[in-house]
Specification:
single chain, elongated, three-stranded mixed β-sheet, alpha+beta, 2 domains, GMP Synthetase, Chain A, domain 3, about 160 residues
Length: about 160
């Protein structure tokens, strides 16, 4: 808002000074052109915030009109929080499994790609491990069985 007001003031000041510097009767057509250009500049300055307001995503939920904005926002925040915690948990879990594979089976982290799948409630559903390089010499069934007992979920090792 402050920028728009300063812009309007600047355009008005520049137009006024330019009009004063133009010659009297000989510059009549020039003054008309200056007024048109000034009008367009002022119109552009006024329209810019309106266009940016229309471009931004201001979706208003019908629940918000009924006064349930707090409940809707709380639900959105809880969903985002749960997704963030799940993503962070998945990263930590995969790092822990990589450490386990390194400690117990001597598998380097570069040779084991670990992915975790969670249910909608955020519970661990399955772990998928893809071995490569020297890790391919390990018994995938043995790794799968050991991790299944520890994690109480489905573990697929390939």
């Amino acid at each position: 808002m402050k920028t728009m007001i300063l812009g309007l003031f600047g355009v008005s000041l520049a137009a006024t000074l330019s009009e004063l510097l133009l010659p009297g009767d000989d510059g009549r057509s020039l003054k008309q052109v200056l007024r048109i250009v000034t009008s367009l500049a002022v119109l552009l300055l006024i329209m810019t915030p309106l266009v940016s307001l229309l471009k931004s995503d201001h979706s208003v939920a019908l629940e918000g009109l009924a006064g349930d904005t707090d409940a809707a926002l709380t639900e959105q925040y809880n969903a985002v929080f749960a997704e963030t915690v799940t993503a962070g948990s998945a990263t930590l879990l995969c790092d822990g499994i990589s450490d386990f594979l390194s400690d117990i089976y001597g598998i380097d982290a570069a040779h084991a790609q670990v992915r975790a799948a969670f249910t909608k409630e955020g519970n661990l559903q399955a772990v998928y491990i893809t071995l490569s390089g020297s890790a391919l010499l390990q018994n995938p069934d043995e790794i799968s069985e050991a991790l299944s007992k520890k994690l109480n979920c489905t573990v697929e090792v390939r």
